[in-house]
Each structure stands twice: as structure tokens, then as C-alpha cells.
Design brief:
This protein has about 280 residues and is α/β, with parallel strands linked by helices. Helices cover about 40% and strands about 20% of the residues. Helix 6 packs across helix 7. The longest helix has 13 residues.
Length: about 280
């Protein structure tokens, strides 16, 4: 008989948000795989529980090597509890490899639902929540980041990102350039912690604010693109979108074609807008 893999959500800030079942699983698991064993022990102490099973580290640096070991434990009947530093395992955290490997071996996988920075930020943002997509961390390199943002420039659903505080200003500035300076967004900082802050405004306003320096854990929520059918994109905006794509390394012909599809207009209209921007009447 095979064991069970349990994915457990952990607090994203306030330890009292820990689900009650987390303490039970910590006490009863045969193996506890933790992203940071020191943080896990501090959490267990705060919950008043002592893990009875073996505690091992499971983080980005050893995830590939440790996954087969944990799968063998599961295959042998062990109950393995996976926890990360905050939130749900697998969501921009270690876990996916282990889940996929367990599923492949037909091993039961279950979860202890817990706090989620993605859903908490989405709910607090004041932006539409009926449809959304999670984009994780944007690429660190400027060119790759612009390219990734361009891929979702026409996305109608609300977008949710994680970002580090020292890259936040650059990312918001890139979003303002690609999505448009007036696109609404919210920066959620230190959620559920003492200095929790939700800053709402346009991407341009938030980029200017972030340039002064921001600290803490960051989640960014961005309004989806407007309905192309209900919005007329003017020539200046068409030319701007082509310029953004060209600066990110795309050839003009491909950039014009992509913007035409994105804006729902003929390619000739986009081409004329680019020419007009380079040779303004006067």
C-alpha cells in the first residue's frame, strides 16, 4: 500500500492564520519536507507542536535530487507532508516536481488548504476578480521581462504577479510602457503582517511611488486589457505598441502584425501610424 503526499498551506504573515489541520499533519507525518527547516521549526513551535517524523529540506537547490527519495518513501507507505516558507507549495514554490512524480506513480496527493498571497491580493486589489491569471515572477532581465509582458498585453483577465522589492520599480515602469501608463493596478505589500499596505493607482503612478524604494513581500495585481471591441486605439497608441515590441527585439514587420491583431485593426492602419509617428505633420 502506498502512502500519501500532503501539500499544506502555511501562513503568509500572521501565524494565527495557519489552518488547524496543519498542526495535526505536522504531528502525524512520517516525513516533513520543508523549504527551510529552521523556519519550519519556528512555525511548529508557534503552533505548539513537535514533528514526530523525520524533517528534511526540500528547496529549489535540492528539489530535483530529493524528489526521487521522497517518492520512494511514499511508495513504501509513508505520509509525507510538504510545506514551503509561505502559502501553498507548488505556487512559485517547490512542489510541482514532487506532485508530478507522485501522480506518475499513482500515489495519492491531497492538500491542507491555507493562506494564498495570490488570492488575498486579488481580493484586496479592488480590480475585477471574476477572471484572472497568475503570472508568477517576471523575468529579471529587462529584455526578457518586456518580452513576457508583451505576450499578455492584450490579456483581458486580471493579472497577478509576484515581485521582489528591489525590482518592483523597474517592473512597474515596464508594465506602464507595455500595458499603458493609465492601466489600473494595485501593489500589495506585507500581506497579513504588521505593516500591510495596499497601494492602488495607475501603473505610472505606482512606478513613480516605487522608485522611492519599497520593502517587504510584494504581490502586484494589474487590470486586464480593455475590450478591443469597445475601444478605439488611436494612432499614437498603435505606434507606441509597435515601438515597445521593436525595443524588445521584435522585427518591425512582425511587431506591426502583432499589434494589428491585438488592437483588432488592419495592418495598414498600424503601418500608417508608425510612419506618422516618425514623420509628424508640421
Amino acid at each position: 500500500m502506498t502512502g500519501t503526499l500532503v501539500l499544506a498551506g502555511t501562513p503568509i504573515g500572521d501565524v494565527s492564520d495557519a489552518p488547524p489541520r496543519l498542526a495535526e499533519e505536522l504531528a502525524g507525518a512520517d516525513v516533513v519536507a520543508a523549504e527551510d527547516t529552521r523556519r519550519l521549526r519556528r512555525l511548529a513551535q508557534a503552533l505548539g507542536v513537535i514533528p514526530k517524523g523525520r524533517v528534511v529540506s526540500y528547496f529549489e537547490g535540492n528539489e530535483s535530487a530529493r524528489t526521487p527519495e521522497l517518492v520512494e518513501e511514499l511508495a513504501g507507505g509513508a505520509r509525507v507532508l510538504l510545506v514551503t516558507d509561505a502559502g501553498m507549495p507548488s505556487v512559485s514554490d517547490p512542489g510541482y516536481r514532487l506532485v508530478a512524480a507522485a501522480v506518475e506513480r499513482d500515489i495519492k496527493v491531497t492538500a491542507v488548504p491555507g493562506p494564498s498571497a495570490v488570492l488575498t491580493a486579488l481580493a484586496l486589489s479592488g480590480l475585477p476578480v471574476d477572471r484572472f491569471c497568475f503570472e508568477g515572477f517576471p523575468p529579471r532581465k529587462a529584455g526578457e521581462r518586456l518580452g513576457r509582458l508583451r505576450e499578455v498585453a492584450g490579456e483581458r483577465r486580471t493579472l497577478v504577479y509576484f515581485e521582489s522589492p528591489h525590482r518592483l520599480d523597474d517592473t512597474l515602469a515596464a508594465m506602464a510602457e507595455v500595458f499603458g501608463a493609465e492601466r489600473r493596478a494595485a501593489v500589495c505589500r506585507e500581506l497579513t503582517k504588521t505593516y500591510e499596505e495596499v497601494r492602488r493607482g495607475s501603473l505610472a503612478e505606482l512606478a513613480e511611488w516605487a522608485a522611492e524604494g519599497v520593502r517587504g513581500e510584494i504581490t502586484v495585481v494589474v487590470e486586464g486589457a480593455p475590450d478591443r471591441g469597445s475601444e478605439q486605439v488611436d494612432a499614437a497608441e498603435l505606434a507606441r505598441r509597435v515601438r515597445v515590441r521593436e525595443e524588445a527585439g521584435e522585427r518591425r514587420k512582425e511587431a506591426i502584425a502583432a499589434v494589428a491583431v491585438e488592437a483588432g485593426v488592419p495592418k495598414r492602419e498600424v503601418f500608417d501610424a508608425v510612419v506618422a509617428a516618425k514623420h509628424p505633420a508640421g
